[in-house]
């Protein structure tokens, strides 16, 4: 078996020269080049991901993988995709014409382990007949849960509170100290009432929110009724809400939509939460709005760029809480995302309908 595989595989280690034995390559495949004799489709995975996806792919495919936690350098990626049938990628990889051309005509499907697909040029994929899969639903509740956690961390000033305890600033119980707005009796405004926006609204129900507002391209009457949310224009949502939650996808329309004009329309006490994409916020305007008191506070799971540089002015502010893009980071969610990405790829390779395909509009 091993002798046969030796002849089939030209193994190139991309992972710092570890795993010299063939058996360890087969256990944790850093990167394999499959010889032209192989009849199995070739898949390249661009990162270390939960095993559910790679394990499933290996049942039918020859799998090569950038087996590190940090992104594969672009040049390495361009050479690694040459001749593959499928690409398993993350939101950190730009899937554009250059990459698709580097892969060549063998490429049939790109599966991104994310629900956001602003990093994928859908038009370029469609022009080359490359299908694209993504991972909606399996991360929705995890993202909603983190959105609520971030909202509470921001409004209830947990960053300042934890620092105070750790830095010896906790004197005694003080009636006026570290107060912030509560959810009870508040108005919450959700911008983008899609899967995650609706899930956040459902998660917030037990907090005795007085009024749940949403805005989107169109009303969603059935879901809104079940959730108890009311449709309003964007301006109405901004003006009325104590908490404004960005749950839109990043598109040319929503790019930097949260800018100084929008912050001016919010209450001066409003708490702005963004768990969608950093690109929907004009970050300099956000900083100014936070410093000038145009809005009360901001909680960000996503920023531009990522990682947010440690000298970012946003990090100097007590009223800004930043997290390192962890909204979907539950064990179950990430495992399910990996598996769904693999199922998308296998379905496309087998000319079956993909469980979650994105189509260019
Ligand atoms: N922080 C994270 O780790 C994380 C995890 C998952 C998803 N996300 C982000 O969350 C986004 C939403 O995910 P989803 O599954 O809810 O997607 P979705 O497509 O179900 O929801 C997005 C909603 O935004 C609406 N929308 C788009 N443009 C709009 C505009 N200009 N004005 C008002 N509404 C607009 C859409 O109509 C849709 O209802 C993803 O695109 C992704 O970028 C972030």
Short description:
The protein is an alpha/beta fold. The chain has helices at residues 2-8, 22-27, 52-58, 74-80, 97-103, 122-127, 140-155, 158-166, 195-204, 221-227, 234-240, 260-265, 283-292, 331-349, and strands at 9-11, 32-34, 42-45, 62-65, 86-89, 109-112, 131-133, 187-191, 211-215, 229-231, 243-246, 271-274, 297-300, 320-322, 357-358. Strand 9 (211-215), helix 10 (221-227) and strand 10 form a beta-alpha-beta unit.
Q: Quick one: CATH class of the largest domain?
A: Alpha Beta
For the biggest β-sheet, the strand order reads: 10-9-8-11-12-13-14
**Structural class computed from helices and strand pairing:** alpha/beta
CATH architecture annotation name of the largest domain? 3-Layer(aba) Sandwich
How far apart the termini lie comes to 47 Å
Bound molecules: nicotinamide-adenine-dinucleotide
Number of domains: 2
Order of helices and strands: HEHEEHEHEHEHEHHEHEHEHEHEHEEHE
Shape: globular
Q: What does the model show?
A:
With 361 residues, this protein is of the alpha/beta class. It has two domains: 42-137 and 332-349, Rossmann fold, CATH 3.40.50.720; 140-322, 3-Layer(aba) Sandwich (Rossmann fold). 34% of the residues lie in helices and 15% in strands. The chain contains 14 helices and 15 strands. It has helices spanning 2-8, 22-27, 52-58, 74-80, 97-103, 122-127, 140-155, 158-166, 195-204, 221-227, 234-240, 260-265, 283-292, 331-349; strands at residues 9-11, 32-34, 42-45, 62-65, 86-89, 109-112, 131-133, 187-191, 211-215, 229-231, 243-246, 271-274, 297-300, 320-322, 357-358. A seven-stranded parallel sheet has the order 10-9-8-11-12-13-14, sandwiched between helices. Strand 12, helix 13 and strand 13 (297-300) form a beta-alpha-beta unit. Helix 3 (52-58) packs parallel to helix 14 (331-349) and helix 7 packs across helix 9. The radius of gyration is 23 Å and the shape is globular. The protein starts with a helix and ends with a strand. The model is unreliable at 1-37 (pLDDT under 50). Residues 115-116, 136, 139-140, 143, 191-197, 215-217, 247-251, 253-254, 275-277, 301-302, 325, 327-328 line the site of nicotinamide-adenine-dinucleotide (NAD).
């Amino acid at each position: 078996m091993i002798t046969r595989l030796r002849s089939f595989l030209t193994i190139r280690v991309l992972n710092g020269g570890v795993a010299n034995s063939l058996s360890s390559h087969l256990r944790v495949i850093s990167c394999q080049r499959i010889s032209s004799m192989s009849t199995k489709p070739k898949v390249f995975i661009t990162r270390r991901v939960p095993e559910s996806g790679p394990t499933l792919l290996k049942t039918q495919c020859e799998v090569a993988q950038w087996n590190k936690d940090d992104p594969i350098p672009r040049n390495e990626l361009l050479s690694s995709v040459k001749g593959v049938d499928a690409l398993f990628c993350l939101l950190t990889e730009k899937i554009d014409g250059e990459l698709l051309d580097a892969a060549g005509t063998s490429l049939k499907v790109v599966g991104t382990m994310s629900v956001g697909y602003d990093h994928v040029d859908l038009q370029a994929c469609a022009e080359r007949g490359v299908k694209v899969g993504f991972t909606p639903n399996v991360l929705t509740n995890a993202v909603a849960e983190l959105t609520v956690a971030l909202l509470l961390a921001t409004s209830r000033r947990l960053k300042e509170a934890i620092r105070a305890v750790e830095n010896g600033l906790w004197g005694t119980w003080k009636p006026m100290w570290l107060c912030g707005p509560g959810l009870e009796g508040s108005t919450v405004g959700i911008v983008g009432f899609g899967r995650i926006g609706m899930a956040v609204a459902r998660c917030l129900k037990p907090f005795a929110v007085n009024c749940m507002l949403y805005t989107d391209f169109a009303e969603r009457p059935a879901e809104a009724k079940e959730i108890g949310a009311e449709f309003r224009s964007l301006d109405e949502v901004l003006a009325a809400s104590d908490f404004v939650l960005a749950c839109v996808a990043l598109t040319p329309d929503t790019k930097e939509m949260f800018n100084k004009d929008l912050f001016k329309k919010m209450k001066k006490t409003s708490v702005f939460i963004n768990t969608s994409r950093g690109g929907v916020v004009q970050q300099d305007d956000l900083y100014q709005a936070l410093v000038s008191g145009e809005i009360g506070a901001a909680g960000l799971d996503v920023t531009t760029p990522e990682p947010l540089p440690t000298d970012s002015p946003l990090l100097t502010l007590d009223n800004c809480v930043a997290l390192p893009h962890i909204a979907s980071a539950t064990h179950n969610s990430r495992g399910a995302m990996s598996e769904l990405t693999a199922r998308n790829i296998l379905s496309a390779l087998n000319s079956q309908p993909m469980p979650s395909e994105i189509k260019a509009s």
